[in-house]
Amino acid sequence: MVLTDPRIAIVGSGALGCFYGGKLLNSGLDVHFLMRNDLEHVNRAGLRIESNLNGNLALSDLSIHGDTQDIGPCDLVIIALKATDNEALKVLIPPLLKENTALLTLQNGLGNEEYLAGLFGEQRVMGGLCFVCLNRISPGVIRHIAEGRVAVGEFSGSPGPRTYDVELLFQRAGISCKVSQCLMTERWRKLVWNIPFNGLAIASEGLDTGAILSDRHLRARACSLMREVIEIARCCGHELPLSLVDEQVVLTEGMGAYRPSSVIDYAKGNEVEVEAIWGKALRMGIEAGAEVALLGALYDEICASVGSRKCKSG
Amino acid sequence: MVLTDPRIAIVGSGALGCFYGGKLLNSGLDVHFLMRNDLEHVNRAGLRIESNLNGNLALSDLSIHGDTQDIGPCDLVIIALKATDNEALKVLIPPLLKENTALLTLQNGLGNEEYLAGLFGEQRVMGGLCFVCLNRISPGVIRHIAEGRVAVGEFSGSPGPRTYDVELLFQRAGISCKVSQCLMTERWRKLVWNIPFNGLAIASEGLDTGAILSDRHLRARACSLMREVIEIARCCGHELPLSLVDEQVVLTEGMGAYRPSSVIDYAKGNEVEVEAIWGKALRMGIEAGAEVALLGALYDEICASVGSRKCKSG
């Protein structure tokens, strides 16, 4: 192993960061959280993961910090910040780096690996796709709604020893994790879900996934969007099966009344990851000569909803 | 374009090499064939591609050679040799090389890119998967039975200008071609078909694909093998959909009484690509901890059929 007894930092301790960081910590690993809003509360009351699937998990006496300088150099940095906060990584990451520090982004959408590679060198960058449903229901309390695998891979080059080490660390923490030979195809696979469901939840002014699927018109629109995204991915060189559409509908029905994180952000007036989820995919589709009518219309609706100031003209 | 007016060599002018080389030549490109068995016949009578799908194509006055030294340096070398003849590439390729010569292997199975990379450097190596049904029915006569796309990609690193140039050259020649971001996943996608259908055709002592699907037992075995190969691929980091199984059955039914090249080789007493198609996949599956019972049994049967001298112990 190249990641023996690794020192791990979690940058961005929202639902995703707390869930995976908490699981890794619970497996006995040395995990340090960068936390902003909930820092004091979690220091006092600990972290709680509620899951009907795996049982509940309560963690106390965590190593929580408001600044990465208090964490110091790590072997593995897991980035679970919202993509709209990526600018902050310029300052947050350097104190965590030593020679072979791996940067693993678990963020949504397109462009995060490229951004990290531009700042810190592509050799450091790994990515992970989390096919999971999580919500932060109150400070320090994460609800785990639907199980999902993690696909982990290298941004440049083939999987190597550290990739398989990360897979093993996650597996030992009870997380279903698998090395992917093709990280970017997995990104597109996740967008097949995020684009329609996060998008229609915002465009419908806050409907959950169950309500979207119960509405005949929105359900049909979600399916058409999924087909269009699969075809855009194909034009960009990522072959995904059309059968994903039906599979995703069945999976999503199993989620019940799930509210994707984007719509929670939207409802709270927080910034929404418009470019990472919809904007970059749209532009890549246009560049590849794909049909993008449905994605384009959805992007316009989302931009109108969140306010044009937050959308680039692209 | 980095491949402007390219000089192209076809190394291995069997059904695959003659079909793609003939199409590229017919589109106006400068194509040179390395041919062994049929050289004199094709020099005299030309090349004929018979297709119910695209119409027939007759080509004469081709540049055909028995030695790559008579062809000389090229920009693009398309390798369509049987994988069992790979040893010959050590001698065949060097006369075709200049500084930026790209080597595009259209061969079946696993290990061909690695072999070329070991000999000539990974930067030169590209791969293509041809989802097509072709048979050489007599010297210089190729029958095109089922249309299929070509997925073309880079062995190391991401697709670049030359990858998109090859895509364009193929498309201009009337070949459905698409750059793949993940060449090795496409290799496994093709193995999902080749492993059961080429394999059961040999194990059944020569049944065609139509006959395999008409036999209740063999049809079930083909489907179980496809499911196992999809799961092996998944364990090796290549996510393929289970829906491939049904899709492949439908596509294969459309091929009629097709005899895969392996079974034609087998029937003629020629060497069969046992390691490239079955052996390497089996060993990779074992290494990845996948269930390989069905592939293992098929491999043993094929080894017994073709004679143990041609199978490595693995």
Tag the structure with descriptive keywords.
Rossmann fold; homodimer; 44% helix; 314 residues; N-(1-d-carboxylethyl)-l-norvaline Dehydrogenase, domain 2; 12 strands
**Tally of extended strands of chain A?**
12
Shape of chain A: globular
Structural class of chain A: alpha/beta
Largest sheet of chain A: 8 strands, mixed
In the CATH hierarchy, what is the architecture of the largest domain in chain A at level 2?
Answer: 3-Layer(aba) Sandwich
Strand order of the largest sheet of chain A: 5-2-1-6-7-8-11-12
Fourth-tier CATH superfamily name of the largest domain in chain A: NAD(P)-binding Rossmann-like Domain
| Portion in strands of chain A | 15-25%
Number of domains of chain A: 2
Helical amount of chain A: 40-55%
Report the oligomer: homodimer
Could you explain how this protein is built, in words?
Two copies of one chain form a homodimer. Chain A is α/β, with parallel strands linked by helices and 314 residues long. The first copy, chain A, has two domains: 7-181, NAD(P)-binding Rossmann-like Domain (Rossmann fold), CATH 3.40.50; 185-305, Orthogonal Bundle (N-(1-d-carboxylethyl)-l-norvaline Dehydrogenase, domain 2). Helix content of chain A is 44%, strand content 18%. Chain A has twelve helices and twelve strands. Chain A has an eight-stranded mixed β-sheet, with helices on both faces. Chain A has a four-stranded mixed β-sheet with strand order 4-3-10-9. In chain A, helix 5 links the parallel strand 11 (150-154) and strand 12. In chain A, helix 6 packs antiparallel against helix 8 and helix 6 (183-203) crosses helix 12. The longest helix of chain A is centred in the middle third of the chain and has 21 residues, at 183-203. The first copy, chain A, is globular and about 50 Å long. The first copy, chain A, starts with 6 loop residues before the first strand and ends in an 8-residue tail after the last helix. The mean pLDDT of chain A is 93.
